[in-house]
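Weekly structure sync, notes
Attendees: PL (lead), two postdocs, one rotation student
Agenda item 3: pending single-chain targets
PL asked that the sequence for the first pending target be pasted directly into the notes so everyone works from the same version. It is reproduced below exactly as submitted, 239 residues in total.
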Amino acid sequence: MNIDPNQGSKTQRVEAMFNDIAPKYDFLNHFLSLGIDRIWRRKVIRMIIAEKPNDVLDIATGTADLALMLVKKLPEVRITGIDLAENMLEVGRTKVNKLNYSNQISLKHGDSLSLPFADESFDSAMVAFGVRNFEDPVKGMSETLRVLRKNGKYFVLEFSMPRRFPMAQLYRFYFRAILPLIGRMVSGHRKAYTYLPESVRTFPDGNGFITMMEKAGFSHCRFKTLSFGIATIYEGTKV
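Predicted structure, written out during the meeting:
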């Protein structure tokens, strides 16, 4: 989806879109991915747990799915989640309070391109399906680098484009024809689930994303593809 300057910046449009779909977001996430998104998140969580962080920043936290998954595995961890969409955060706060994790998970409204935290505030940072929505991905990742402590790790889970037959062809058909139709019917939002496949198609993945991480200042960057290339986990370090 192209950003029309007459309708505000990409940041403003993404914020409005996710505010609109917040009530149905969790259901659609799991339904449209056939539950595979939970498996992807668990893989990221295992990588974070290995670092044994005390303070974790969850960027574009949405409804706090990743934060809740981490706190269940690391009971002493402190997690700060930040997101543009207040309606998504409200859904997340309800979930956090219901599960009695409000002492460990704090959800704040804010922009990933201008994080409201001091330098070197966190041991690790994580983001699931969010960097693609940044107005300026390199600037956003540079901000993440700023608030990480030395040797802090940055973990990104993001959609990617499969390259091999037949998964590439099946994936493109599902993303272009099936996902927008179901997403529109359930969420009632005409553009949100058209934006998703278009944003994935045009966003760098694999080595292209690694190049952006390095440009933002991260070192020792690497990636691992999941589910035949449908998603990818990226990891970088602040040295």
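Discussion points:
- The two ends are 36 Å apart (CA to CA).
- The chain has one domain: 5-21+34-161+204-237.
Action: rotation student to compare against the earlier draft before next sync.
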